[in-house]
Automatic annotation (TrEMBL):
GO terms of biological process kind: acylglycerol catabolic process
Protein name: acylglycerol lipase
Enzyme Commission (EC) number: 3.1.1.23
Taxonomic lineage: Eukaryota, Metazoa, Spiralia, Gnathifera, Rotifera
Principal location: membrane
Length: 216
């Protein structure tokens, strides 16, 4: 059972947001023994000659982060919002630790399994932007265009956040207490989070299941 299904409030909220965005939730196995089952949303249909738009979320996020964007994207564009391995509702029973290069190869396998042969438009936020950039370098034949939203900076231009992460302060992105979570929300958002506290608390608790995996 996926992480989002453990809390009825989150489930209902995301179902309503998905309806508002006009997307349909689907899943697909990437191998015969079903070690990895990718969960994703889809909107519109693939049109020959028109790049499908693939939305890649950031670290410790999920595909639902894009729903508020997708409600403004017309059905005439084929859009896919994917949960990366060890995020959201994607099931990954591989015991090995993941690297971003393995995530890139998982994306390629997803596209191959989906038989998406036309060049794609890849849209990545935060570490998703880095994933998109690395994918484009390794598999340029799959890519028509890319859009990078706030990818992590290089060491020459590190932000205070990146410096703290390099210093081992991983609780900034992987909070394990409600106090750390609210501090993270204040640090990473421009506008103050106004969602009800009951919802925010449930959202925080839903992330705890994969904290250890994501830390590795």
């Amino acid at each position: 059972m996926g992480i989002l299904m453990h809390d009825w409030l989150l489930t209902i909220y995301y179902e309503i947001a998905a309806i508002d965005a006009g997307v349909t939730k689907r899943s697909i196995s990437l191998n015969d023994d079903a070690n990895t089952i990718i969960s994703y949303y889809e909107k519109g249909k693939s049109i020959p000659g028109q790049p499908s738009m693939i939305y890649i979320h950031g670290f410790s996020s999920n595909k639902e982060a894009w729903l508020s964007v997708l409600k403004f994207v017309p059905d005439s564009y084929h859009s896919i919002l994917i949960d990366l391995p060890r995020h959201g509702e994607t099931t990954d029973t591989n015991a090995d630790d993941h690297t971003i290069h393995e995530v890139v190869d998982t994306l390629k396998l997803f596209f191959d399994t989906m038989q998406m042969t036309d060049p794609l438009c890849l849209i990545g936020a935060s570490i998703g932007g880095t994933t998109v950039a690395l994918f484009t370098v390794k598999y340029p034949e799959y890519v028509s265009m890319i859009c990078l939203l706030a990818p992590p900076p290089t060491k020459l231009h590190e932000s205070e956040l990146i410096k703290k992460l390099h210093a081992g302060m991983d609780h900034i992105l992987l909070p394990t207490t409600s106090e750390e979570f609210y501090a993270t929300a204040e640090l990473l958002t421009v506008k103050k989070v106004t969602a009800p506290k009951a919802f925010i608390d449930r959202y925080f608790k839903s992330r705890l299941r994969v904290v250890d995996q994501q830390r590795r």
